[in-house]
Design a protein that fits this description.
heterodimer, A: about 200 residues, alpha+beta, Ubiquitin-like (UB roll), DNA polymerase, domain 1, B: about 725 residues, Aldehyde Oxidoreductase, domain 4, Aldehyde Oxidoreductase, domain 3, 19 helices, about 25% strand, globular
Chain lengths: ~200, ~725
Amino acid sequence: MHDDDRPPAFPLTRRDTLRAGSAVAAASVLPPLSSAAASTQSMPLEPGATTTITTVVNGEPITIAVDTRASLLDVLRERLALTGAKKGCDHGQCGACTVHVDGRRVAACLTLAAKVDGREVTTIEGLGEEAALHPMQQAFIDHDALQCGYCTPGQIMAAVACVREGNATSRERIRDAMSGNICRCGAYVGIVAAIEDAAAKMGQG
Amino acid sequence: MSALTPTQDRMRIDARDKVLGRPLFAADIPLRGLLHAMTTPARIAKGRITAIDTMAAAAVPGVVRVFTHEDFADLRVTPATLGGNQPGFQPLTGTEIVFRGQPVALVVAATLEAATEAAELVEVTYEAAPFTATMDEPGAEPQPYETAVEAGDAAAAMASAEVTVDVEYRHPQNHHNPLEMISTTAHVEDGRLIVREGTQNTNALKFGTAGALGLDPQRVDAVSPYIGGGFGQKNVLQLQSVLVSRAAMALGRPVKLVMPRAQLFHTASHRPASRHRIRLGASRAGRISAAIYESDQENARYDHFLRSAHNEAVSRLYGIPNYLGRERLVRVDTNPPGHMRAPHEHPGSYAFESAVDELSYALGMDPLALRLANDAERDAISGKPFTSRTLAACLDRGAALFGWSERRAAPHSMVAEDGSLVGWGVASGAYKGTMCPCVARLRVQADGLTRLSVSGHEMGQGIRSAVGAELMELLPIRADRLEIRLGDTTAIDQHHTAGSWGTGGAVPAVRAVVGRFMAALTELGGPLRPGESVHTRLMALKRPVLEVEIEHLGTSQGPDALERMRRGGVAVVGPEYPDFVSFSWIAHFVEVRVEPTTRRIRVPRVVSVADCGRVMNRRTATSQVAGGVVWGIGAALREAAEIDPRYGFVLNNDLADYVVPVNADIGAITVDLLDIADPMLNASGVRGVGEVAMVGAAAAVANAVYHATGKRIRHLPIRIDDLL
């Protein structure tokens, strides 16, 4: 489609080229970052202080060296290409990064990756699949409990936990138990209806 | 082409992908060799940089480069830079600091952790200058008033009115806070610069980036297929956008910057604070004869947020023959404000619909009856007919659904069993019926695939579901193999999506491209037989694919609008057209309960009835209205930026302290849509709904608080301490 006979599109100055050249040289000695999901081998080394953890993510065992400062959220998103968990605040204030650790909901942005050593992590990618949605996922579709979809993975992980915790017994309790998950589009009415519906199907309504 | 009948019930087109966590938002795209960037924000509100020491930052293991203003001095600031219409200020091009939090360095590193640590180690020395943080501080510069709306002789009619009110309302600074933080990821591939950003305006990103970097726009791609909420904050090129692109070009590797929430409170746009003085004059029988509405709205010193438009919608709510609306901007030292959902219509309707409520009590008249008594047949401002005038129908239906007839008139007269004060409030809303040019390409294959490429951006409002609905209403295709491509300049030319013109622009364009497609198909083999799908027909014709493309203009637009769009600009028409004016309408009914001891305000139920013309997808449109109501509740009871005038700093710059509604704040919201096609406005009979949803909602809450307590609070948000 595009015309490849055009002159070069990016007129970099000589200074840029020189500076960039040295930067690229420095950067290129870093091992390439893996974009593949959950792999047990050849995870790249990180430039800061690292620690090696062994964990199970969505049923797959992995061993990975992580920056000691890294949050679980950043390791999931930037190292394991599991981008379903979202960053909305990085302060544990919005719930968009909600995942399960050993079956309990946590804010992945407030959880150091090093803390999940020896634990099991479940993200939205491990909850249900295309051919067999989790009842909560189906209920979110049926009640249009979403708009932009950015908070949705966190809402659904929190909603599943809300039901399992025994907090889905009334609309009022659902609203309280789901108030750590902000939906800026304002789909709260649908979210409450979806959780009531799914709770019945999960046998814990 | 088929009649404008109600559409079938269909689920949101991308809902399945979204519950699986599959959509790749801008910061989700995996790119090999990706570098992470972080900005260092300025710690003064005004002045200049005298020195920057990057040694400590550069020494952090993993840091690839620390960029300062010396590296970006050659960026060009063009009218396109900030979105096509306004002159822009580009940080990091010089030593001048014009707002607190302005980025002064960009650190790029192999990991996010290294970039974050290093950005905090950049040492900047400043020479500070005096500044003015808000329009209430000395040094704020009011611009001259501009007359925005004028009809009849408002001053004379006011002087002779039997009953008048003269009131002033204040609206605070609000922040959009879409949950997807603003991010930019850029890389160079095959001689093209590819920029990914959650943006409602890939056109601005493409042309603005090209302009700033001196590139051929045809070599820049802007990609934003999913946006994690926009609400207007993602309308224009961001302050960081070209910096990230420039860094990626200089380093020859992909670079990603996700700007932290705390910085976004200072770098991304916001709804500016405003003051509203409203005078209304009426007869004792309740006929409003005059309105004079003057507003002040905060603005940055160096940038033009165009002008305000507080009067445009409210001057059309009722048939007020003598109307004067004057608006002015007040300049202070802040980052540029911008459009935030119902940008002028929300604060305008909060003030105006509160004043109408005050008038109803001054007259001793039911607030709903006063509104119905002042319905308009024609637009009193322009003298033109409305394409659709259904406010009274929205009010009537809402009143019936809510049970308004049970309301006791006197304030502070309804009490719940638990002793809570009960208040019922009503307010009207309107939002302009707008359209934009749009390009659409439709490809249908014999193997069952259909691909629709169309100008538009999906920020959650449901434009995929709206255009998909029009396509499926008109064309027998396989719904399960429908692909809709939008928000991507590589798919088709794009236009900015905002101002509720997305649906009005794109849905009629889909109708037009289907018309062209059917003509082409019929030419090949006669009209489709009942029950025959397009795929079967193509198979019978031994044609693997049929593709057509059209250009579509907004009603009354000329070809220049399309040219402006193709050059990266914005080309919108409405609400005034040559022969008519067009608005969407809404009526909100709100119940509040105020606890007698703590004075905590709750909103257990809301009924909202809207008319947005033909409803393309009842589920997504209903969700839009409910979401707009949530925004109204947030604006009425929760949201305000607390600015420290000593430092020009937003103190509550995170989601724990800038309080937006959470699930426990929201009760029942009943939404009804009249679903009356508006064929005068366009061939699909559609108008927007995302903005009108919020208009009037905050006023209805405030009016309910008055009815519950007898206290008229003339500022937002209304909090416990206002009622003690």
